[in-house]
Amino acid sequence: MANAKRLPSGAWRTLVFSHTAKVDGKDKRVYESFTSWDKDESEFLAAEFKLTHKKKKSNNNDLTVSETIDKYLTMRELLSPTTIEGYRKIKKYAFQNIMNVKVKNLDNENMQIAINDEAKRISLKGTVISPKTVANEYGLLSTAIHKIHALRFDIVLPKRPIKNVELPEPQEVIRVIKGTWVELPCMLAIWLSFSMSEIRGLKCSSVKNGTIYIDQVLVDVENKSYEKSTGKAERRIRKHQLPAYITDLIARQESYIDYKKTGKDRHLVPLTRNQIYGRFKTIMENANFDISFHDLRHLNASVMLMLNIPEKYAMERGGWKTPHTMKKVYQHTFSTERKIVDKKIDEYFDKLL
C-alpha cells in the first residue's frame, strides 16, 4: 500500500499510479493524488482508488469509445431528456474516427489527432463546426472515459475566437416586432429576460395579481415537446412584476381570454419553438438585423448594465445565479430595492414603445 507523505502545509498526500500517457512520444507515468489532514484517510482513499481502478480496468478493458459513452449515459439516467439527446447527437456525429476504437488503445497522440480532425468537420448546416462545439463534444468524451476507465488525456483544444458581436439597439428591435404574432414572446425575452423554453412553459395560470411566475419550462426532445418542472437549475425558478405594456399584451392573448372565460388552463404562448423562431428570424431578416432569439436576453443584460443595475438584481431578474445565491435572494424577492430596480427598467422600456 502506498504511504502518505506530509506536506509543508501539514496535510498528508498519498500518490497512486493510475496509467501511462504519451508525452512528446515517450511514456509518462500518471499518478492520482489524495490529500487529507488525516494520514489514515489519505492512505485509505488511495487504496480505495487503486482497488476500484483495477476493477474498472478488468471489467471495461475492451470497451470502445462508443460503448464507453453508452455505459456512462446508463449511469447518468437522471440527466434531463434534452441533455441525453444532446449527448446522443454527439455520439452519432462527433469523433467518428475513434468511436469504434478500444479506449485501451488511445493515447495523448491519437486523441490529439482525433481532436484536430474533429475541428475540421463540416456540420449538417454546411459549415465547419466551432471550437466551442469541439470543446463540448470532447467534454462528453473525456468525462465518460475518466468515469469508466479512470483515464485522462493531455491534449490541446482549438482556441475560441473572441467575437465582437454588434447587436441592434433595443428600440430598433422593439420597433419591428410591435404588432406581430411574436410580439409577446419577444417582449418577454428582451424586457424580462425570459428564455425560449421559459416562455413556452408559461401557463395562463402563471399570471397572478400583476406577477408572472416561472416554475416550468417546455423543451423539445426528438421533435416532441416535454414539460419540465424547472429550468436548467433552481436559479430559473423566479417571479417578475408585470409591466403594464406586457400585461396588456397578455390580456389580448386568445389563450388568456379563453382561460378567463372558461378556467381552462393552457400555455400562454401556444406556439412551437420553430414557429416562434421562424417568425422572429423572418422579421429580423426583413429589417436586416443579424440577431438570434437568444440574443434578446443579451440585449436585456446590456440594458441592465447601461442602467447600472446592481449585479445581485440583474442576476435575480435573469435567473443567472447559483442555487445557494437564489435561496438567499428569493426570500427577499420584490424588496424595496428590487422594486426600484424593476421600476427603473420598466421606465426605460416604456420610453422605447
UniProtKB/TrEMBL annotation:
* A Gene Ontology BP annotation from the UniProt entry: DNA integration
Q: Mind listing the GO molecular function terms for this protein?
A: DNA binding
Does S-adenosyl-L-methionine show up as a keyword for this record? no
Q: Coiled coil where?
A: none
Q: Which InterPro entries match?
A: CB, DNA_brk_join_enz, Integrase-like_cat_sf, Integrase_catalytic, Integrase_recombinase_N
Keyword Cell membrane in record: no
Tyr recombinase domain boundaries: 160-343
> Which parts of the sequence belong to the Core-binding (CB) domain?
63-149
Q: Which UniProt keywords apply?
A: DNA recombination, DNA-binding
Q: What PROSITE patterns does the entry give?
A: CB, TYR_RECOMBINASE
Pfam families per record: Phage_integrase
**Name recorded for this polypeptide:** Tyrosine-type recombinase/integrase
